[in-house]
Design a protein that fits this description.
- By secondary structure, this protein is mostly helical.
- It has one domain (2-430).
- The protein is built from 21 helices and 2 strands.
- Strands 1-2 form a two-stranded antiparallel ribbon.
- A hairpin with a 2-residue loop joins strand 1 (46-48) and strand 2 (51-53).
- It is globular.
Length: 431
Amino acid sequence: MTVILLFVIAMLGIAIFPMLIPFLLLSYMALNGLASRQLIYHDLKMTVGGVNIFPPDILYAASFVLAVVGMSHLLLTGRFRMYAPLTKAAVVLVMCYFVLFMGKFVSGYLAGVPADSLVRRFALDTQCVYMFVPLFYLKRGAPLRYLLYFVVLLSLLFPLAQPFLYGSHDQVSIEAGLGGTLRLGFGNANLLLMLGMLALLVWEKKLWLSAIPLSGIAMLAQRSAFISIALCIMVIALQKKKSIKFIALMGMAGIAFIIALMVIKTTSSVPVIGKATERLSQTFEKTGSTKARMDLIPVALGEYEKRPFVGFTYHEIHSLKQKQGSDVFSFNMLHPHNFVLSSLLRSGTIGTLLLLSIIFVIMMAAFKLYRKQFTKEEGMYLFSAILFFVVFGLMNTSFVSAGYVFWVLAGITLWYLNYARELEYQQRRSM
């Protein structure tokens, strides 16, 4: 009953304030990163007619409805022609991407794929609907600022709770499965920590605090996150033209990071320094998991060559999901730990070219914002965050499991591009 009440309250809140969706997505990401798997997969679900409904399902459904309403209004009012050229290109590409999966949905339905499995797969593949929430419903000023404050707050609080996971049933099980790697956190918590840390770096507000989310990333022990965050820090440093102030503040953040790990080790029984150092040293080593994923590439490409245009049908994916618990091949085809490989398998050449084109256009839009004086910090932040997500996605499954992060960032980027275009138009008129 409590879960149903929470779902109803969330839906009412979204109906009044559509931009509540990103706040709820971030909240769920934080909860998923810390809570027991029992809570996430059993306690936080609602069953209707034999179908299990989880919080992300509600948020996707709400985003889908908002996207349809917003797109209808956009086309009926003719506002689309006022959009920036890159925004128009991105919207057209995303619509083509969505239509591709609509076709796969219809073919899956005709092939007799169970409705629950069919809808859930379609929702995973069309997380692009999240892009339209900020694009259509973000207002000027406060809402985005509040979203940044919120993600920074979560990224500062999350690492404080991570040491308490040490010794829990879920943590011990994961450590055993990873061959002894200490990982304090679940899901895609690295993305949450990254979003908060980059905000602190870009706006240089209390930059030393970035040591806290950085320590959280260290405790999650994902090498892909180490590589991605290092690349983003270098990009931000170059964008800031190697300012003495930024370099000095980064040095302070580095010292604070070491102190933070020492405090965690001293106040708890977590061997975080030794384990974090060990994992960092393995970043470019060919460990067992790295070798397994490298060996998977030719196998996955062989499957792609059998269906090069649109990838696996939903009927084939449903069959793989039924066997993934006991069949290594089925599991690997569904989780290749590389978003390009994953896209080739689930959407073929057509879907992959569309996705890569969308990423390229969004990154161009973010860089264009950075080049404008009045959106410089916003552009720097969005470009760095998207870059992190893309690099991170090359080494894990985040584009499927947490694709909404990319699409919300994409929507905010395009909204700012339209906003910048409008400001420039007003400036020309006033001259």
